[in-house]
Amino acid sequence: MSKVRVYELAKKLGISSKKLISILEELDVDIKNHMSSLEDDMAQLIMDLVSEEKGSKKTKNETPKAPEPPKKTEEVSTKPKIQKVVLPSKISIKDLGNRINIEPVKLIKKLMDFGLMVNINAEIDFESAKKLIKEFGYEAEEEREDKLAELEKEEETRPEELKPRPPVVTVMGHVDHGKTTLLDAIRETNVAASEAGGITQHIGASQVEKDGKTIVFIDTPGHEAFTALRARGAKVTDIVVLVVAADDGVMPQTVEAINHAKAAGVPIIVAINKIDKPGANPERVKQQLSEYGLIPEEWGGDTIFVNVSAKNRIGIDTLLEMILLVAEMAELKADYNARASGVIIEAKLDKGRGPVATVLVQKGTLKVGDAIVAGPAYGKVRAMRDSRGRMVKSATPSIPVEVMGFSEVPSAGDVIRVVSSEKEAREIAEKYQEIHKEKENITTPKVSLDRIFDRIKQGEIKELNCIIKADVQGSLEALKLALEKCSTDQVQVKIIHGAVGAINESDILLASASNAIVIGFNVRPDSNAKKLAEQEKVDIRTYRVIYDAVDDIKAAMKGMLEPEFKEVILGRAEVRALFKVPNVGTVAGCYVTEGKITRNSFIRVIRQGVVIYEGKILSLKRFKDDVREVMSGFECGIAIEKFNDLKEGDILEAFVNKQVEQ
Ligand SMILES: Nc1nc2c(ncn2[C@@H]2O[C@H](COP(=O)(O)OP(=O)(O)OP(=O)(O)O)[C@@H](O)[C@H]2O)c(=O)[nH]1
After folding, report:
1. 459-560 architecture in CATH?
2. Ligand 1 atom at shortest distance from the alpha carbon of 314
3. How far is ligand 1, taken at its centre, from the CA of residue 310, in Å?
4. Region annotation G-domain: residue ranges (predicted)?
5. So what CATH class is 162-334?
């Protein structure tokens, strides 16, 4: 089939262009109108889908969920038996259909129910394939050629072999509250006299000793780095030290850090810093933190607070003692004799030494000479250095080491494993590369409001995690309460983070790591957050009325979310100058930074991430002429109906509401 226009295809299929356009929009196909051309394979897919739909309407007796009869059965049985199939770690929809003798179009439709839009040649991973064919009465087993799966199986814990391991600590807190100074203070006070003058190596994590016990600190402070690793599936940190400056108190990033640590289920120790300062008020910090559930022991809570001055090296010893205490209570243990594995904390290409990576061993003992694999990188441990720069021959659980000998630079968050030979390491790395090089790598969709109901039904979701960002504290509190009240017996709505301000990258990372949706009330995502959300497949919903948000959540939980209108963002422009024009009002001289602005679009005025007005365009001009649209890279004059309070630097977001056909 050659290229075909939308209206031609609609005619061929005997449906209206409007209906076809809505199908295409469902499939995320980028089309402008009924004159747009479609690629061959897309046209073919639509034809298959529509004819399948028509077919299934005719044959009413067919129950699509019933298991297909097994292809070949040795014995004749009356009950449909669950068929086992062996599948590779990646398979195309087409091949999968062939293997289980089910038309690929049926598989595509089922995937659409799961929220995945794919074409017939798209490859899905084993887990997705397994879930998919389960719907058709098949059970999938992964092909044994996947050595990683074997290794993972082998990694099952042997409780009798577990021995205590050192805690791994991440320092978090608001900007300038003293995270870096505190880490420096900890490292310096720990350098033994004999080593004085010895330079601490920054390899990504540092090891310090206290009373003969070891504590490991992650060198990059902050909750972003912590949650980024977590979003990649790596759980590294055992304890969070939350630094709060005694003269400044709880600030927005203090709250972010608390919520990121809580979402990860990691215990928090509070270090009230800068107690040397004249304005220091540790009691006020305790009071403030108690509002976030961090209640000091003397007030009947179970959070440990330590007063410190990172600058004057006061309280550091006590802090270390408290870390050891919390670690002891957490009973951190690992099997020192298991096959070694760990997480890459940091990696780089060193001019002289080639790829080097800092590894935090989590299990077993990593030794020089071990064959290793981490994502696409493999090799043999040539040499290892500890955080003091000393060459070491082995590294036990929790101990950070810089490893040399990788074929290429692995990524932070990759799991490193020891395997039996370098050959095996190479094979596993090649397999990994093969799987990951395809662009159409399907990641499991995170929670999306549209698909909530399906996932509730499948028992996948018991808690609906939400992150709320709002323009003011009052609306934040109101929305929190209103949403929490939406909880039902089956699903609990849980607000894992709420704050005032624009939706930022850290919110998206937290959502990704915790499978949460992000709700913006009168605020918008900044552009980095928007990009990251697309990449991480995080669902962002923005509202201007609390009841709309509540209605949507309720409807999604009942499987009745039927948005009548879908908002489509056309573009953004930045206000660069303002002019007062008689009979018109304020005209903003703008520069279109993204997409386009059209005369009939709606405009949203955003100031520092907060939506301050929504309305219609009154006039759109290029020089003296009224124009229908202005593309990105051009300047224009915009006046907004009934709104004159524009300021330089405001962002004007143009959008239209498209009706979604039911
Ligand atoms: N008086 C006093 N000043 C301190 C103390 N700790 C840190 N500071 C100062 O506070 C400022 C910020 O400290 P940093 O350690 O850079 O803070 P940070 O939290 O790492 O900051 P970011 O990395 O920017 O987030 C620096 O000027 C420090 O010298 C302290 O205990 N007392």
Report:
1. 3-Layer(aba) Sandwich (3.40)
2. 31
3. 8
4. 167-315
5. alpha beta
